[in-house]
Queue: 4 jobs
Job 1
Amino acid sequence: MLVLLFLAVLGSAQAQLLDVCLEDRVGLNSATKTAFAEELSILLEKTEWRLNCHPSAVRLAVRFSPPLRYASALGLAYRTGERIAPRLEVYLNTVLRSLNEVRAPSVVGRALARVAAHELVHFTFQRTDHDASGLLAERFPATQLAGADSRPFLLARKSAPR
Ligand SMILES: [Zn+2]
């Protein structure tokens, strides 16, 4: 399951604050983390969220590599039965591979955030399916993932909370 995520506004018109606990297992440098946070803010513009490791926060781990079974995944959202669990992962090595030779912290941080935002949307909307385009597209062209333009990664309009 290829999944990226967003923040939760489930079913009701009332937005709730989404706490995201970022677990950096790869030692991102500060420039990369800054770019990550900036892009996440752009992509999650409609969601009230903050980085906060509250016990009930969504765990968003940045790891080096995905499980072997999903060797090409950029990120994953784990499931518990029918539910998408508040456990999301983003993988540095597969993201770097998709960026080819680009290693600029601004580009890497931005790409990681795009994958993270995708997984967060899976969780917040409890959606296991994908859209044809936008943030919940199943895959992203490398040129888009590395690109400065955030617009291809905004959530498609039809993806309203259910
Ligand atoms: Zn997905």
Job 2
Amino acid sequence: MRRGRRSLKSGRFLPNIDVDQWLADHPDFLIDCPHQPGNLRITRDACAKRHATANEPRWANIGAEPFHIFVFKMNLVPCRKCELGASLAREAKIKAA
Ligand code: SF4
């Protein structure tokens, strides 16, 4: 059965949220990363995941190939010894338990 097309103009697919207002109401949702370039703002959960990923044992086994994985590894270098990421990863672990 073929589904009918939905027009984007109908507004059904557009989120009905004011992002700036939502962020103003949830000031702790994003943190400013002190180590990544470009004044990165990231969620607390994503930061904790990056720290955990950067400290997985398999991280050390990643070589120069495939190149896109190597680039991802290099992107995680600042997260390996980041104290902010470590504290957020600890919080996330406690929350999950
Ligand atoms: S772990 Fe540290 S370096 Fe990595 S995103 Fe979080 S704050 Fe930034």
Job 3
Amino acid sequence: MIRNANEQVKQLCGRPCRIRVEPGTRRRAKLEMHPPNTLRVLVPKHMKSHEIQRVIQNGEPWIEEQLRSFDAMGIRPYRFASGDLLWYRGRQYSLEVEPQNGSPEVFCQPEAKKIIVRHAPSDPDTVRRLLEHWYSRQARELLPQRAAVYQGRLHVKPAGFTITGARKRWGSCSPKGRLSFSWLLMMMPDEIIDYVVVHELCHLLEMNHSRKFWSCVGRIVPDWRRHYHWLQTQGRRYHWPLPQ
Ligand SMILES: [Zn+2]
């Protein structure tokens, strides 16, 4: 099945995978595996299709390893329909989609362990878009609040905040002192959110990962190593599909 010129669904390692080929200015091909089953193939602009096939073939052992690790983390594709399990601040909620006319509503009901989307139409693309807006709105509210808790202790002040949809880059700090955070962080436990916020605030003092930088992080988050390791090993559990 071909969805567009650069994306197709193919059997890889014994299961259907979405393969997206993205030509760009890079000099060497690179494979990226995105949960639950998307293989992103970043290639030089004029790479021939048989060469691309070879890159994918050579990558199969690695792809299989990635798919196995997704399985082990219990990663499932979303349907963006009632019954999906969604993460929010480290807890799992069941999605309930209620087709309803009027302006769209998305809200969390912690007691019922539900995230409710009220909107018509309620097709998967619309539900997904509404959820993305909801998560980014939560991030825009919470992350500056969490930064405010720590910036006084570190004697720093960010120039501003940007919320992104980055899949792996949970946070970053620009040379001008602007902090960016991915809204995907909103799925993770609060202690991880705080660690990422502190990490980026410390970059306002140290624009590197030197010993001095980590000792700055350690002053606020003494067990930062545990969080760092958690993000490396568990971060991908909190996935979201790439835009179509
Ligand atoms: Zn860093």
Job 4
Amino acid sequence: MQLAYKVNLGQEFTTVWIRNDRKTIKFSDERCVICEGVEIADMPGLQYCNLLSGVFQAVLGLRGFKGTTYQETCRALGDPECMWTTKSE
Ligand SMILES: [Zn+2]
């Protein structure tokens, strides 16, 4: 699953948004494979597919982008899409 995301990074996301100064990058995926079919109602604040944050951070690191990646929204918790943000250090 992680490998699939590595291979597809930059192609499979619903949106990829890069701020003008290139210090903030947002990814969103409304077909997140990890959250597919998952519904969590009783654990607010849980970031179900947060492990992908580490994958994105590693891939961006290989491209020379140093930053911190965290998850903002998650489909497993009822959000319409999974979204992650990377902020340059
Ligand atoms: Zn997800």
